[in-house]
Amino acid sequence: MPRQCARKLHGLTLIEVLVVVCIVGVIATLAAPDLTRALTNQRLRGAATDLVSALLLARSEAIKRGVQVQVAPLAAGDWKSGWRVVTTSSGEQVEKTDALGQWVDVQYAPSTIAYERSGRLAGVGVAQIEFRANANAPGVTSRCVTIDPSGMPRVARASCS
Question: Is 8 inside any structural domain?
Fold first, then answer.
């Protein structure tokens, strides 16, 4: 065989590269809705976990300090803006959680949640707060934080209604 015909070809052709790019594009298009749903689920789970953490801290501080401690939204009545844990006697802020972001809506939330010095909820009954995805993220399960009269919070992967 002549030396000119025996040369080796290396690399990819333009057609091969375009086929691979098209396949990757189709796979990415199919995976995008699942990724959005997963991210929204994570945001809801994170918001519920942050609230439970703040509630447990408020309960612990009420027992430790022997005073009433509140968990209240940063903006009056708007839990979506975040919340803070404060002592009612001195107004000292124990903890603050920032805004939840545009993907999470809050339903059924009381104006404040107060713990007595015994660690029980102030007032009677059960308090509930629901974290749900906004209208742009269908198919995502809400998270319901329920606080029983003894003051212990728990999270359920369901609607509070």
Answer: no
Instruction: For residue 6, tell me if it sits in a domain.
Output: no
Find all residues with CB under 8 Å of 118, minimum gap 6, and list them.
Answer: 62, 63
Q: What is the pLDDT of residues 19-75, one digit of tens each?
A: 999 999 888 777 666 777 888 889 999 999 999 999 999 999 999 999 999 999 998
- pTM score above 0.70: yes
Q: Do residues 57 and 94 lie in contact, with contact meaning Cβ atoms separated by under 8 Å?
A: yes
Instruction: State how far the Cα of 134 lies from the Cα of 138, in Å rounded to an integer.
Output: 8
Q: Over 80: is that where the pLDDT of 139 sits? A: no
Structure tokens at 93: 């802020």
* Residue range(s) defining the domain that contains residue 72: 14-156
CATH code, domain carrying 88? 3.55.40.10
